[in-house]
Amino acid sequence: MKLLQDRIRQDGQVLTETVLKVDTFLNHQVDPMLTMEIGKAFAQKAESAGVTKVLTIEASGIHFAMATAFTLGVPFLYAKKKKAVTLTEDLYTTEVFSFTRQESFQVSVSKRYLNAEDRVLIVDDFLATGDALLGLVEIVRQAGATLVGVGAVVEKSFQDGRAKLEAAGVEIHSLARIRSMSPETGVTFIEETLTENEEALV
């Protein structure tokens, strides 16, 4: 997605070779117009899959899930990291590890809102190690629902998240796939470095 790639180049900050800061437009201060375009891109990819629910994890994936669900005309659902006193129903739960926060936490979704009849599209902001997304995949499987795919806004393709998801049989669509990055050279996207043979396959 060229619009997203251009914005990452313009406003993203590469802090290290593994840490990209996008909090001016994606996950702290949010550009709503860009967010809606991201939702349209995910929805277009999944429009023929019969999606009934869009699932994400709080908090940084919520606005992308909402934009996607709005475009598809279906509800979105987010897994909660802490159990609220009002969440009294039976729950699907799993433990995930956050690369950004470097800590593990339990996430939960009410069984009331996810069931075997659902066809679920998972959406999140980043794909890095893949642990959070694998946690959501586990919740979908606990529900007996059908997973139609996973959408990641930004993928750090130099980390092992994609390989883990593919090994689990999950189809992944990422809007901006980063091949490499550094504070000195900035961000290189996979599409920019395709060989002639790779281009012939696109």
UniProtKB/TrEMBL annotation:
Name of one Pfam family that matches: Pribosyltran
Keyword list, A-Z: Cytoplasm, Glycosyltransferase, Purine salvage, Transferase
Primary residence: cytoplasm
GO molecular function terms attached to this record: xanthine phosphoribosyltransferase activity
Listed InterPro entries: PRTase-like (IPR029057), PRTase_dom (IPR000836), Pur/Pyrimidine_PRTase (IPR050118), Xanthine_PRibTrfase (IPR010079)
Residue span, Phosphoribosyltransferase domain: 34-157
Protein's UniProt keywords contain Transferase: yes
Gene3D superfamilies: 3.40.50.2020
Ligand binding (xanthine): L20, N27, K156
Protein's UniProt keywords contain Ion transport: no
Subcellular location per the Swiss-Prot or TrEMBL entry: Cytoplasm
Enzyme superclass (EC): transferase
Enzyme Commission number(s) of this protein: 2.4.2.22
CDD domains, alphabetized: PRTases_typeI (cd06223)
Annotated metabolic or biological route of this protein: Purine metabolism; XMP biosynthesis via salvage pathway; XMP from xanthine: step 1/1
Reaction it catalyzes: XMP + diphosphate = xanthine + 5-phospho-alpha-D-ribose 1-diphosphate
Assigned protein family: Belongs to the purine/pyrimidine phosphoribosyltransferase family. Xpt subfamily.
Protein function: Converts the preformed base xanthine, a product of nucleic acid breakdown, to xanthosine 5'-monophosphate (XMP), so it can be reused for RNA or DNA synthesis.
Assembly and binders: Homodimer.
PANTHER family: HYPOXANTHINE/GUANINE PHOSPHORIBOSYLTRANSFERASE, XANTHINE PHOSPHORIBOSYLTRANSFERASE
Protein name per Swiss-Prot or TrEMBL: Xanthine phosphoribosyltransferase
Species assigned in the record: Tumebacillus lacus
Gene: xpt
